Sequence to fold (107 residues):
Amino acid sequence: MVEIGKDRAMGETLSLGERFLGRCLEDFDVVQRALSEPGFQQDPEFVHIVHRMAGAGGLFGYPHLSRMARALNDALVDKLPYEIKDIQAIANELLGIAEGRIAPVKD
Fold:
């Protein structure tokens, strides 16, 4: 498992980008829970995380994550059908970002 920011010297602050990467790993764990516990897919915590990813992904240079999360968020909020593969795709994207395999898009 990737640990972001655990070895930082005391007093050093994380940049917003570094905090976003750390949050991706935390969110990955919650998304994995939604995959293993189908009832959790309607949990307010999961819905909130998907909503946050929809906005933050693009802000930090990950528009693909943002688009996927926005589509899932719309389905969750409007009680529309969605597929487990949509949640799995978001989980894969989050892990790729957190592990550095997916780089941000530069303007």
